[in-house]
Amino acid sequence: MKQAFQYKLLPSTNQRREIDRWLDMLRHQYNYLLGDRFNWWQYNRSDCVIPQGEFSQIACTIGSGVLRDNPDWHSQSASLPQLKKERPWYQDIYSQVLQDCVKRVKLAFDRYVQGDCKGKRSGKPRFKSKNRYRTFTFPQAKDSWLIGNKVNFPKLGLIKFVGHRPIQEGFQIKTASITKKADGYYVTFVVEDKTVPEFVPDTIATEGNSLAIDLGLEKLYTDNLDNRVLPEKHLRKSEDKLAKLQRKLADESREGLSARTGRAACKPRSRKAKKLIRRAIAKLHQKIARQRKQWHYEEAKKLCQRAEVIFIEDLKIANLRRKNKPKKVDGKYLPNGQSRKAGLNKSFSDCAISQFVEILQHQARKLGVLIVKLNPKNTSQVCWKCLNKVSKTLSDRWHECGACNESIDRDLNSSKLLLKLGLGIALV
Prior knowledge:
Helix 1 packs parallel to helix 4 (about 95-115), helix 6 (about 240-255) runs antiparallel to helix 7 (about 270-305) and helix 7 crosses helix 10. The strands form 4 sheets. The chain has a 7-stranded antiparallel beta sheet with strand order 2-6-7-1-5-4-3. About 40% of the residues lie in helices and about 20% in strands. Strand 6 and strand 7 (about 185-190) form a beta hairpin. The chain is built from 11 helices and 16 strands. The chain has helices at about 15-45, 75-80, 80-85, 95-115, 235, 240-255, 270-305, 315-320, 340-350, 355-365, 410-425; strands at about 1-10, 135-140, 145, 150-155, 155-160, 170-180, 185-190, 210-215, 220-225, 230, 310-315, 325-330, 330-335, 370-375, 400, 405-410. With about 425 residues, the chain is an alpha+beta fold. The model is unreliable at about 55-60, about 255-260 and about 260-265 (pLDDT under 50).
């Protein structure tokens, strides 16, 4: 069984500088290795398709005609000693941290070319800017690194951390990752206890021990007992503060206004003034994300304490957030409703349904609750009582069935239908 424990680090000034220096060097190496793979992908592959039965006298021109080996994890890892000779400052980085950087490039590129274990491919990897490379990992951390409230990192030395909770006995530290966030530095320990197996509940779903929930934006979820949780809308509540800071940053860049009037440290058009405002914006976004995550954990735990089996929809949020296709007639683009869809996508981000489902599954594993995902097809269009199809648009929030005269909330109807589907009482 594996768990993750995150603590806030309290590095000294020199240690902060060294961590930032490591991040910058690792980012440059990441971009170089990724560019090397892109270069091979562009000049050493061919899209030629050979017809069946025609294997003779077929030739394809590939790039410049000079082929080279595919840069993989082994070849790129073997280039690290030469890197340290040509650039001696890379010797200051712990060797396993450099090797983990190579591994990150491999994972990003393999997901783009081959896909993950389920065959799902990711988008094209991007070169990392300074704000997008914030973590490096020690892949073989040890329990001996922990000395009281300090961690002894190789080549970084002893760094204090806030030990707000102890690591459980029996768990061994496997990896340690240092992350730079808006409010400081954090260390994440991944610990494992092989004597504790992953709990797989074998609960048999019945009407008495099961619960079905319908996820949405108007309400985070509605269960089949008509219990509803309204969204907290943390982003919407902080929009005024966020807009004020963003206007301040725009004015600072455009007119050279002082970030904080009356302070000599913030001169007009100074980089320091802009940096202070950007840091305030980043901290506000971090606060919003933490509020939302804490709320999700609380609601997920309450939900898991009420049932032994929970049925949910297997929603593809990425598909729901796709941009509308453009409408082009006679060379002119017609309105396609994308501006209205943008507000809907913002609500998806604010509610974070995917994060809630992920946290719900995590809490369910800890509490021994079985989560069953069901196909969401037609769950909002079919009456739970008589299984008659009642077509609705997204704006129709009430379910009215003409066959059985059932009149209830649309989300409540969906949750009741999900319970029937999960128990095998009905098929849609």
